[in-house]
Input
Amino acid sequence: MFHVTQLKTRKMKNILTISILIFASCGKMTSDGIRIYTIPEGKHYSKGIKGEEMESNTIYYRAMFKPNCKYFINSVDSMDLNKRLIGFVDCNSTVHRNSARFGDRAVNDMVEITTYVYNDQERLPEKPITFVNYDEWFYCAIGFTADEYIFSVNGIEVTETRTNKCDRGIHEFLYSYQGGNIAAQHEMTILIEMLD
Output
């Protein structure tokens, strides 16, 4: 039979083990605050820090697509948009009802970034924003006003109509997702640092 001190020690070890497992499953962050989002081979959803809500009308961050984010699809699916950058669900809604995200796709040796918006269950045609290089930091802002969603990459700003006029409610973050139809062909890594 265990003594009380042995039980406490075992209990503490179990709590520590559970805490480590929970942290590992939630994702990684470097000591300088860089979030590491990894999309495993054959998967759509990323591993990384999740479960956040917007604290203001705009999310600011810098991001980097590591070279392992390059992919090649030899079919009509090559024009599908990934959603590998942080966006948000609007108005206590769902991703396919009301949301604003950046779309991205591999184009030659660069990544094209576009808008990706759902308004009242209608997916709006994407608007091009810019191209970025692999393995280089770029700056993003995504947010909303009463009437618009605002997208900015490296100072290039594009707006899109916001039809749902909720003035309050939960605006949950949306995280890295590979696809369209095709899952990650190999492991992919996206680095994100949240900014004020």
About this structure: The longest helix spans residues 4-26. The chain has one helix and 13 strands.
